[in-house]
Specification:
185 residues, Topoisomerase I, Chain A, domain 4, Gyrase A, domain 2, four-stranded antiparallel sheet
């Protein structure tokens, strides 16, 4: 019983970390990275499609992304989606490919990005703590229903706390790494 709850908690916490990685991958740093635009939603023949399904995304230079659509007819749709996004980038279209030049980040923008990273890190910490709370509540319910003993409950809560601490530490490491990426000139 406790083992299943612990495995469930592990899986849910791992998915919270993965979600954090996905969120942080779209925060731009000083370098061009295809993940910046991969998940950008493009209106293609009336339905939203992720950009990664419509084009190849390359990095020809450290501060430039090159988007080569599979279908040349979609180039205008991709351009529209980039302009409508909150990336703050202006696409340059030569008829075959779209180039995105990433300007260097100024100090104020770097600090804004770090604040955004901290907000996402806090959301991930809250998600992990909520998982801990839910699992501990389930274990207490099992103990009240006499499905597990008080010792099993104490042991299970201790294991969940250790797992929570481990994931909170991993979140902090991910945050430090992203901060260093952003501050790198």
């Amino acid at each position: 019983m406790i083992k299943e709850l612990t495995q469930d908690a592990e899986k849910r916490m791992r998915s919270a970390i993965q979600s954090l990685h996905d969120d942080l991958s779209v925060i731009r740093t000083g370098r061009a990275n295809p993940s910046l635009v991969e998940r950008l939603s493009v209106e293609y023949y009336g339905s939203p499609v992720p950009l990664i399904q419509l084009a190849t995304i390359g990095v020809p230079e450290p501060r430039q992304l090159m988007i080569k659509p599979f279908d040349q007819a979609s180039i205008k749709d991709i351009e529209k989606a980039i302009l409508a996004s909150d990336l703050g980038l202006t696409p340059m279209n030569d008829g075959k490919v779209i180039r995105l030049n990433l300007p260097p980040l100024n100090e104020e923008r770097r600090h804004d990005l770090i604040r955004s990273v901290h907000n996402r890190l806090e959301e991930a910490r809250i998600a992990v703590r909520n998982i801990r709370r839910d699992i501990n509540k389930d274990m207490r319910d099992f103990e009240e229903e006499k499905m597990i003993s008080k010792d099993d409950l104490a042991s299970g809560e201790e294991d969940i706390q250790k797992m929570t601490d481990r994931y909170i530490e991993e979140i902090a490491e991910v945050g430090k790494h992203k901060e260093m990426e952003i501050m790198e000139v």
